Amino acid sequence: METNPGRRLVARCLHIGGGIFAARRRLHRVVTSSTPSVIPDDYASLLERPLYGHLGTIRPDDTVQVNPMWFEFDGEHLRFTHTNKRAKFRNLQHNPAMSLSIIDPDDQFRYLELRGKLVDVEPDPTGAFYVRLGRRYGNAEQQPPPDSADRVVLVMSIEKSTKQ
User: Fold this and answer.
1) Residue 13 and residue 9: Cα distance in Å, rounded?
2) 148, 126 Cβ separation under 8 angstroms
3) Confidence of residue 40 (pLDDT cuts 50, 70, 90)
4) What is the phi/psi pair of residue 45, to 5°?
5) What b/e readout covers 50-66, taking b as 16+ CB neighbours within 10 angstroms?
6) How far apart are CA 125 and CA 151, in angstroms?
7) Fold for the domain defined by 42-163
8) Is the pLDDT of residue 14 over 70?
9) Angstrom distances, CA of residue 73 to CA of 9, 51, 79
10) CA nearest 117: which of 52, 36, 44, 31?
11) What is the mean pLDDT of residues 38-44?
12) Which residues contact 2 (CB under 8 A, 6 or more apart)?
């Protein structure tokens, strides 16, 4: 018996060919919404600046994968651009747990880690979110990527934080 119905629903929602976005509404009812109040006020600027975050997910063999990622904080969730063809996407089908760490470039001993889950996958077949993030990160001439047809926006809840 499945002990985590949210995990099962996320996996079913993300399954290619099985109605990838069919369960989006139900997903929000099953997975607890994020709690932005867990973000310390004196660390919020790390989310507002165009800093690279290190996004950790769990591979199907239960080892960790961590990659630098562009991100955007919308006031409640973290949002990432990705494709539905890569390992990180497959990792999230297996286990929706995610963790993002951000190091303050002005003080390398200061960091913020945010932990949560994948709560939504939004199609982005034109690469519009990729372009928006590219511009946020300093490329005023950012164009959609060649893999735009496979692009999605990964939406992460924020459930816990740690800091130093």
Assistant:
1) 6
2) yes
3) very high
4) -65, -25
5) ebebebbbbeeeeeeee
6) 5
7) Pnp Oxidase; Chain A (2.30.110)
8) no
9) 24, 11, 6
10) 31
11) 93
12) 8
Rounded CA-CA distance 106/46 in Å is 11
The residue type found at 111 is Y
Collect all residues with Cβ–Cβ distance below 8 Å to 153 and sequence separation of at least 6: 79, 80, 81, 82, 120, 121, 122, 123, 124, 129
What size, in residues, is the chain?
164
> What percentage of the chain's residues is helix, strand, coil (to nearest 5)?
30, 30, 40
pLDDT tens digit string along 80-124? Answer: 999 999 999 999 999 999 999 999 999 999 999 999 999 999 999
Sign of CA dihedral 73, 77, 82, 88: positive
pLDDT tens across 115-162, in order?
999 999 999 999 999 999 999 999 999 999 999 999 999 999 999 999
What is the widest separation between alpha-carbon atoms in the chain?
50
- CA 113 to chain centroid, in Å, comes to 13
Tokens 């999230």 belong to 92
Going from the C-alpha of 2 to that of each of 25, 43, 92, 121, the distances in angstroms are 20, 37, 17, 22
Q: Which of 118, 116, 109, 117 is nearest to 163 (CA)?
A: 109
